[in-house]
UniProtKB/TrEMBL annotation:
It comes from Methanosphaerula palustris (strain ATCC BAA-1556 / DSM 19958 / E1-9c). It comes from the Archaea. This is CDP-glucose 4,6-dehydratase. InterPro entries: CDP_4_6_deHydtase, NAD(P)-bd_dom, NAD(P)-bd_dom_sf. Residues 17-331 form the NAD(P)-binding domain. Pfam families: GDP_Man_Dehyd (PF16363). CDD domains: CDP_GD_SDR_e.
């Protein structure tokens, strides 16, 4: 049976709640689940950017699109009680490091208390469900060494964003131990956290992210200014971690006690390249482009080196990355070029990328 068939068997006809469905990763996840035959309920604020993947693929016409604040406990309770989801994927977040320095209170509120609110709504609903909370590779106490962080390594965080994701991990572990498996029996809610690397793919328009910043500079004929060109990141194509989330939730549904916990979904180490290398690859794929160092305007701390150990996900879930860094860049730029040319309908184009990804996943060595 193909991967697509196995996933469809799990999600077809099921009700799936996605918080943050109007965001970049949330939009791709909503589209994938909708294509598998799931009844997708999205709960989110308006799209965080204009344009956005959500708008470009017209997802509001294809799923149940609910606008709400993750900090609105009453509305969250009402949505979960009304739709009684079989699966919950919690992605709603303030996702940017530099924005967290500008709005630390908002970052902690959304990323920590937003997670508390989702888990509390599930707890009080008493409806059995599977919940995957998406945090970040930056939740780890990063010591800037050449070491890939494992799921049992210490949680930490220097900047407000990273600290908020570390705090969210502590919240998730507390709810799992205190409420969802207090006596080791079948839990009411199978609960996991998923930590992914730096995601690239078509439809991301956020500020202070390398791919959309590159695309904007290319379209406007401007020189790309790199803030931290030697910083190394675990780059991965958007569908790689999303496949991991879907596979994890599938296993949690079947064996909740065995698969609830923390999981890393990162690339192979060959995808860990610095920002200037990634930028050069993007410009070669596009056919033009130039960059230079950004003048230093402040001393805001950002991690320079980070790797994820993915052995647990590979051995226990049977998950593995499908696309190399060059494949990921090709697929990403292919999406943006199709969008700018207006020669493609982006809903179908994005579905084609998902179909090709699943075909490639079936044949990956």
């Amino acid at each position: 049976m193909s991967i697509s068939d196995k996933l469809a068997e799990t999600y077809r006809g099921r009700t799936v709640l996605i918080t943050g469905h109007t965001g970049f990763k949330g939009g791709w996840l909503a589209l994938w689940l909708e294509s598998l035959g799931a009844h997708v309920i999205g709960y989110s604020l308006d799209p965080p950017t204009d344009p956005s993947f959500f708008q470009e693929t017209e997802l509001s016409r294809r799923i149940t699109d609910i606008r709400g604040d993750i900090l609105d406990q009453t509305k969250l309770d009402r949505v979960i009680n009304e739709y009684r989801p079989d699966f919950v994927f919690h992605l709603a977040a303030q996702p940017l490091v530099r924005a967290s320095y500008q709005s630390p209170r908002e970052t902690f509120n959304v990323n920590v208390m937003g997670t508390v609110n989702v888990l509390e709504s599930i707890r009080v609903s008493q409806h059995p469900t599977v919940c995957v909370c998406i945090t970040s590779d930056k939740c780890y106490e990063n010591k800037e060494w050449d070491y890939a962080y494992r799921e049992n390594d210490p949680i930490g965080g220097h900047d407000p964003y990273s600290a908020s994701k570390g705090a969210a991990e502590i919240v998730i572990a507390s709810y799992r131990k205190s409420f969802f498996e207090p006596d080791g029996s079948q839990p009411l809610c199978a609960l996991s956290s998923a930590r992914a690397g730096n995601i690239i793919g078509g439809g991301d328009w956020a500020d202070d992210r390398i791919v959309p910043d590159c695309v904007r500079s290319l379209v406007n004929g401007e020189t790309m200014l790199l803030r931290n060109p030697t910083a190394v990141r675990p780059w991965q194509f958007v569908l790689d971690p999303l496949f991991g989330y879907l596979l994890l939730a599938q296993r949690m549904k079947e064996y909740p006690g065995e698969y609830s916990g923390a999981w890393n979904f990162g690339p192979y180490y060959s995808n860990n390249v610095d920002v200037q290398t990634l930028t050069g690859k993007i410009f070669r794929e596009w056919g033009i482009g130039r960059w230079e160092n950004m003048p230093q305007q402040n001393n805001l701390h950002e991690a320079c080196f980070l790797k994820l150990d993915i052995a647990k996900s590979m051995t226990r879930l049977g998950w593995k990355p499908v696309y190399s860094i060059d494949d990921a860049i090709h697929k990403t730029i292919e999406w943006y070029m199709a969008d700018f040319s207006r020669a493609e309908e982006m809903y179908n184009f994005s579905l084609d990328q998902i179909a090709m990804y699943m075909h490639d996943a079936d044949n990956v060595e």
